UniProtKB/TrEMBL annotation:
Named cofactor requirement(s): FAD
Organism: Aminipila luticellarii
Protein name: Dehydrogenase
Family affiliation: Belongs to the class-III pyridine nucleotide-disulfide oxidoreductase family.
Source taxonomy: Bacteria, Bacillati, Bacillota, Clostridia, Peptostreptococcales
Pfam families xrefs: Pyr_redox_2 (PF07992), Pyr_redox_dim (PF02852), Rhodanese (PF00581)
C-alpha cells in the first residue's frame, strides 16, 4: 500500500509515524512545500523573546530523522498542486527545480494546515508588517528585531499568539500597543473574565485599544478608525487563521464550517480513500455535538495520529474537542474549556454562572488568587464550560474541569472528586470542589446567584430591591456598589426584621463567601427572593473599572 501525506508539520508527521507503527510494509511519502517540518509552532513567541535560545530547539526533527526512524520519505520544498481522486494521483511541483510530476496513492492524507488571515488594510505589504504562522515567519521577525532594533510595536488582534508575542516583545524592551476590533481582548473569554487579563496587561505597561480597527499602516504609524495615530516600528497581524483547503475544494472534497474540510470520526472525507487531519479540518464539540473550527497544535497531533491509524485499518476514532486553550501573559495564566456563557446562551441553554475567587493553596504556603468562572445548565446541572485566570495552579484545575466536562459531569459531582490535598498543593476543599458547590447551591439548593450585568439591569429597572453589603463597615466605606446599604454579617439577623421580605434582596461581600452566609440568613428568615452577587465586590468592581485609555 502506498500512502501519500500532504503536509509535514504536526498532523502530517503524526499521521506518518502512526501509519508506520501499524504497517511496516507500507510505502509512506510526505510532501511539504516548506523547508521546515515537525516544528513547535507554539514555542515561536518564546524564541522571538529570547526565552528559547536556539531556533533548532523548535525544529528537532528533519527528513533524515523520519527516514532513519520510520522509513518515511519526507520531501520538503515540494508542493502538491492538484489532487485527482479518479486516478488516485497527485500533481507535485518541486520548488527548487520547477519540475512538475505525478505520483499515485492508495490512501491520501491531507494535512495542509491553515494560513494567517491578513485583513485588507492599506499598508500591510510593508516589510515592517509580519504574521507568525511558521518558522520562516519567526525567523523574519527575529532578524528584523536584531537589525532594525524597533522601539515600538503594534499587535493587531488579541488571541493567544498575539498576547504571547506581546509579552516577549516587552521582555526585549519594546513598547507594545494592542489593538482589538471587538469590545474586549481575548475574544474566546467572556468579557467579565477578559477584564482581568486586560487589567493585568496594562499593569505591565502595554497600551490596549478595544472596539476599534486599523484603517491604514504608514511609515512607523498605525492609524485607527477614529484617526488616532499610534507609533509602531513593527506590526504583527494576529487576526486569526483560515484553513488551507484550496486543494481539497478543487478535488471535490466537501467543506464545512469556516471552509474547513468535513471529516467523520475516522478522519475520512466524502471522497473514498482520502483522509484529512490537523488545522485544515472541522471538528465537533463534545458538549453540543455541533461542528466547530478550533485549530490547535494538540488537536492537530491527535487527529494526525487518528488519520495514520485509520489509513492502516486501525480502530481509533475522534471523540471531539472542548476548545480547551491556555496561555501565559506575563505572570498570569489564562485558560478556558467548553462553552463560554455567551456561547451557551446563544445555543439556547438556560445557563447558571458563578465566579469563584479562591487561593490555589493556603495563604501561609504562598497561595495565589485565581478567578474561576463556571457555566452550567440549570435544567440538569451539567457542567458546560470553565474559564480561569490566575498566577498559579490554573492548569491543574483546568485539566480537572476538562475531564469532568468530557465525561458529562454535573456540578454536584465536583464536590465528590477525591482530589489530591496537602498544603503545598491545594486547599482542603479544592477550588474545583468549591466551584461545584457554588453552582450546586445555585441550581439545586435555592441559593441563586446574580451576576454584575443582572444587578445593573435590576438597578435600572425601577423595581424595588435591597442591596446588602455584608462586609465590615471599613470595607464598605473603602468601596461599595452604588445603592448598597451597609449591614455587616454579624448584625444582619437583627437588622433583617426591618427589611421588606417581599422585595428582591441581593447580598454581597468581597468575593462571595460571606455574601452566601448573609443570603442563608435572609432565606432562613423567610425572605422570598434572595440572591448572592457572584464574585462579590471584586468581580463587580472589575467589570465596572474605567478603561485606561
Amino acid at each position: 500500500m502506498r500512502i501519500i501525506i500532504i503536509g509535514a508539520v504536526a498532523a502530517g508527521t503524526s499521521a506518518a509515524a502512526k501509519a508506520r507503527r501499524n504497517d511496516e510494509n507500507a510505502e509512506i511519502v510526505v510532501y511539504e512545500k516548506d523547508s521546515f517540518i515537525s516544528y513547535s509552532g507554539c514555542g515561536m513567541p518564546y524564541y522571538i523573546g529570547g526565552e528559547v535560545e536556539s531556533a533548532e530547539e523548535l525544529t528537532p526533527r528533519d527528513p533524515a530523522f523520519f527516514k532513519s526512524k520510520y522509513d518515511v520519505d519526507i520531501r520538503t520544498l515540494h508542493e502538491v498542486i492538484s489532487i485527482h481522486p479518479d486516478a488516485k494521483s497527485v500533481q507535485v511541483k518541486s520548488l527548487t527545480t520547477g519540475k512538475v510530476f505525478s505520483d499515485v496513492y492508495d490512501k491520501l492524507v491531507i494535512a495542509t494546515g491553515a494560513t494567517a488571515i491578513v485583513p485588507p488594510i492599506k499598508g500591510t505589504n510593508s516589510e515592517r508588517v509580519f504574521t507568525l504562522r511558521n518558522i520562516n515567519d519567526m525567523n523574519r521577525i527575529k532578524a528584523y528585531i536584531n537589525t532594525a532594533v524597533p522601539k515600538t510595536a503594534s499587535i493587531i488582534g488579541t488571541g493567544f499568539i498575539g498576547l504571547e508575542v506581546c509579552e516577549n516583545l516587552k521582555r526585549l524592551g519594546i513598547d507594545v500597543t494592542l489593538i482589538e476590533k471587538l469590545p474586549q481582548i481575548t475574544p474566546g473569554l467572556d468579557i467579565d473574565m477578559s477584564v482581568y487579563v486586560q487589567e493585568h496587561i496594562e499593569k505591565n505597561g502595554v497600551a490596549v485599544y478595544t472596539d476599534t480597527s486599523v484603517t491604514e499602516i504608514t511609515d512607523n504609524t498605525v492609524i485607527l478608525a477614529d484617526g488616532k495615530e499610534i507609533q509602531a516600528d513593527m506590526i504583527l497581524m494576529s487576526t486569526g487563521v483560515r484553513p488551507s483547503t484550496g486543494l481539497a475544494k478543487t478535488a471535490g472534497i466537501e467543506l464545512g464550517i469556516a471552509g474547513a474540510i468535513r471529516v467523520n470520526e475516522k478522519m475520512q472525507t466524502n471522497v473514498p480513500d482520502i483522509y484529512a487531519c490537523g488545522d485544515c479540518i472541522e471538528h465537533f464539540h463534545v458538549v453540543t455535538g455541533m461542528p466547530v473550527y478550533r485549530p490547535l497544535g494538540s488537536t492537530a497531533n491527535k487527529t494526525g495520529r487518528i488519520a495514520g491509524d485509520c489509513v492502516t485499518d486501525g480502530n481509533l476514532s475522534f471523540r471531539g474537542i472542548l476548545g480547551t486553550g491556555i496561555f501565559k501573559s506575563f505572570d498570569m495564566t489564562v485558560a478556558q474549556t467548553g462553552l463560554s456563557e455567551r456561547e451557551a446562551k446563544e445555543l439556547g441553554y438556560d445557563a447558571a454562572v458563578c465566579h469563584n475567587i479562591k487561593l490555589n493553596k493556603p495563604e501561609y504556603m504562598g497561595g495565589k488568587e485565581m478567578v474561576i468562572k463556571g457555566i452550567a445548565d440549570k435544567s440538569d446541572g451539567r457542567l458546560l464550560g470553565v474559564q480561569i485566570v490566575g498566577e498559579a495552579g490554573v492548569d491543574k484545575r483546568l485539566d480537572v474541569f476538562v475531564t469532568a466536562i468530557t465525561f458529562k459531569a454535573k456540578v454536584e459531582d465536583l464536590f465528590h472528586l477525591d482530589l489530591a490535598y496537602a498544603p503545598p498543593f491545594s486547599t482542603t476543599k479544592d477550588p474545583v470542589m468549591y466551584t461545584g458547590m457554588i453552582l450546586d447551591n445555585a441550581i439545586h439548593k435555592g441559593r441563586p446567584l446574580m451576576i454584575a450585568q443582572e444587578l445593573d439591569e435590576l438597578m435600572g429597572s425601577g423595581e424595588k430591591y435591597n442591596l446588602i453589603d455584608a462586609r465590615v463597615v471599613a470595607q464598605y466605606e473603602k468601596n461599595h456598589v452604588d445603592t448598597a446599604q451597609s449591614i455587616p454579617h454579624e448584625k444582619l439577623r437583627k437588622a433583617a426584621d426591618s427589611l421588606d421580605k417581599d422585595v428582591v434582596a441581593i447580598t454581597y461581600c468581597n468575593k462571595g463567601t460571606t455574601g452566601n452566609a448573609a443570603q442563608n440568613i435572609l432565606i432562613g428568615k423567610g425572605f422570598k427572593r434572595v440572591f448572592n452577587l457572584s464574585g462579590g465586590q471584586k468581580q463587580y468592581g472589575i467589570t465596572h473599572k474605567e478603561p485606561t485609555l
